[in-house]
Amino acid sequence: MTAKTASERVRELRSLIEDANHRYYVLDDPQLSDADYDSLLRELLDLEDRYPELRTADSPTQRVGAAPAERFAPYEHRVAMLSLANATNEAELRAFDERVRKLAGGAQSYVVELKIDGLATSLQYRDGALERGGTRGDGRVGEDVTPNLRTISSIPLRLRSGQAHEHFGDGAIEVRGEVYLRKSDFERLNAERERAGLPVFANPRNAASGGVRQLDPRLTAERKLSFFAYAIVMVSLSNHPEQRPKRNVMVSLSNHPEQRPERNVILSGRHKAPQSKGDGIATQWESLELLKKLGLPVNPHVARCANIDEVIAYCERWEAKREDLDYEIDGVVVKVDDLATQERLGAAGRDPRWAVAYKFKPREARTKLLDIVITVGRTGTLNPNAVLEPVQLGGVTVRNATLHNEEYIASNDIRPGDIVLVTRAGDVIPRVVGPVLSERKGKLRRFVMPDRCPVCGADVDHPEGEAMSRCTNAACPAQVLERVRHFCSRGAMDIEGIGDVMAQQLTELELVEDIADIYALDEKKLATVPRTGEKTIANLLRNIESSKSRGLARVLTGLGIRFVGTQTAQILAGDFGTIDDIAAASAGELQQCEGIGPEVAASVSLFFAQRANRAMIERLRKAGVAMNAPKRARAASGKLMGKTFVLTGTLPNLTRDEAASLITEAGGKVSGSVSKKTNYVVAGSEPGSKYDKAQSLGITILDEAGLRSLLA
Ligand code: IVH
What we know:
CATH 2.40.50.140; alpha+beta; Helix Hairpins; 5-stranded mixed sheet; 6-stranded mixed sheet; 5 domains; D-amino Acid Aminotransferase, Chain A, domain 1; binds 2-(butylsulfanyl)adenosine
């Protein structure tokens, strides 16, 4: 193929891929199969490899191309991002309408939009290409997070062809909207973090906001964020704002009249922007239509209401239906539809008079904490759970809630008998927030964690610096049950037929006392399980048999080693190939694997150091359980090849595991302790004794930015 035809094909491929992305992410109506999409993308990648001069920043192949940043540059909003006044009930909505009618001199129709619970974001497009994007910050200056926003699939890197120019001549436009995380993506992210032993996010908003503010765009990409556009601001390009800020003319649709009212021109029938061919966009509704035409995702539930009664009905409807959506909403934004009227109403302080946020009632309820009961987890953790007087919360009856750990109970002074506040964030398990102290009557006893396991009576250990107390008896029936359940679960050995009930029966009857006993089950033993017929037994034995060939990664996952979830198990299996090699590896060797930090390595070493565990693995082997996997070649190049790092303290933007994977991906090693062989210590806030040791040995100490610049 000649360069000429290659460039034509590249253009064609980009347009096909952009169309497919738009259908998939924006219209939610894919028409291309995944395989066809992949093959187009592969062809484009291939052509861009062969003809690098054809690779452009707005190519769909370039979403995750940027190197990590050291910090974010400021992002100045050319038109300030306003906040909104709240209404919390019908009366306040009616009062808003009255004020609007009085000021506008007549009844108004409104546009109502779901208030997405995410992170306000601004995007600038120039000549149709995404140029910059930033967070809201204080409304005037936010952070420039352009490379991160580029990873969000529903944000088009190019506006749909033709449309931008038709409407704005050469104008640059600024789009405002909300970056958010779908509940399903939030659940997936938290499940992954939990498996990896990382702290989980309290709600999708926190995860989204942390995601947008990652210094490494690859970490943003992993969160799988989404975007909805809700406003459009136009900025004249003919007046290059950076060059001649004084004469900058801003054409604002639905935005900020108060900052520079004399220079803000609303694009409407009456106030037509001089430099725009804007064909009379006069309403918020039309600007939403325009956003859609430009290829931006607009929430499908936006509506136009002729009067405040319709607005109230919309708010009530969505307050009741909010759980049906796959994203969090915390209210409804009500906007005067007519843009000229918006301009006339202006703002009162920081809040526009033409819009209001109707806030849903918080999904928080008060109820009585009847008791605190302890369940014992797979690794022996003693988990405190609240037993509540049943209460309605966000459409469901809540009877139980988590109390996390004893530290949480003590620091929030939660006592059985208290009236407590319970919330549900996202679709996660309800959580007790704290006691309503004004309601505490008489003397209530503080909760004390038992010093013996409530299930088996063994000693409880509470290691210094750890949040959880643990039952020390590995044979504790509660632990055994949880381990069996976990081993047979879908993500692990996937033994159909051993679910919650069967696992409980098998452990209660002492037919299964450790995982390996599963493979010693036979017809005779299973016949002693109540209500289990011949056919069930035959099926079960067949499923147990076929689980033997799931491979090393699944076995490792199933063993339930602390901090070893699916992903870590796959890494270990791929790097070492056999369980014996993993068992024989030192903590230092384990840490040479991608993403395996000192904590994980220590946990794996500890597991294999225990004789009972080694014996159990022998029995699995004898039973014919496959414990090998094809070995993968390790990274043998990279900027940090041959360098050993030690991490200590809390880094501002990266978790320890994230920092460790950046290092190992670049060929470096992460070790758990400082020695003369250590090349660098990366220290965050509140570093431990490793910091002092590094100083005394004269080892280079880096902060997060220092690490970034080594990687850059
Ligand atoms: S309009 C002046 N529309 O809610 C109008 N905001 O205080 C400014 N939000 O954090 C905002 N969905 O990011 C608007 N459909 C929507 C919205 C929305 C969510 C957020 C916004 C800001 C807060 C408003």
